[in-house]
Amino acid sequence: MSGTLEWGGPRRLLLLLLTVSALAVLVAWQGTLLKLTEFHRADAIVSPASGVFRLADYRAAVQGLNIPGIGNDLSGITHDPEHDRLLAITNAGPVQVLALDRQGRLLGRYPLIGFEDPEDLAWLGDGLLLIIEERVQRLNIIRLPAEFGPITRDDARQLTLGVALSDDNKGFEGVAYDTHRDLLYVVKERDAQQLYRIAGLRPTLAGNLQLDIQDLSDWVATAGVSKDLSAITVEPDSGHLLLLSDESQLLFELGRDGALLDRRSLRAGGGLDADVPQPEGVVLGSRGELFVVSEPNLFYRFVR
Question: pTM of the predicted model, to two decimals?
Fold first, then answer.
């Protein structure tokens, strides 16, 4: 019958096509809405009031300082409270540990002999220094010489973690030690980003093997703010972690349960005259200062 919608007629087919199209648009919109909701929810859990670093309060007291005569591959930094100084590391031409004061002035050098792609370092206390080799994912613990001079890898006590090895130099990138709790943290750069926590280092060094290695990579994935990981440091009283992302040019804080608590951009603005181009290392000093090093050869000091 003309003008009547029959079950098998062309008008019914057209109505079905229009209905399916409308449902597809609705589903797509709901998916977009869900992503927007998830973004705002993830953003809402960032609560500087819950963090201990108070990243927004930091201003750059020294920024973009070039350290003369060390080459162009400044890669990591740690704090040596026993001598009130900083120790930085280069991983190219030549590889060495550098002693710096809090203003970034060079105090002395420890040439590294036999190390393969050293990337970061952590002060363990009692004269002990840990150096990581990225590609082979090896942790080397050495006693720092009393005088400036060579450090030989053959003299180190070593632990290799051959997990998720990478052929394209995307291995262990950062390390930090929580001296209060005897917890060592190691981060893998990317593909995928990984965070490991190693307990029991002290008794193991004393001859009683008690290592407990935990994979905390889901903390980083849940935070969802970084494209890669280049360094890590620990706030000693709380045990909170501050992680550095080179590609995201970002610092972000995780609580002891892995919750994202705070974050700060390292792009121009907020007291920075220019972007930190390739941030590779970060450490919290005993006076509350944050020190950041960036390739090729740039030193930053942040104070509150």
Answer: 0.84
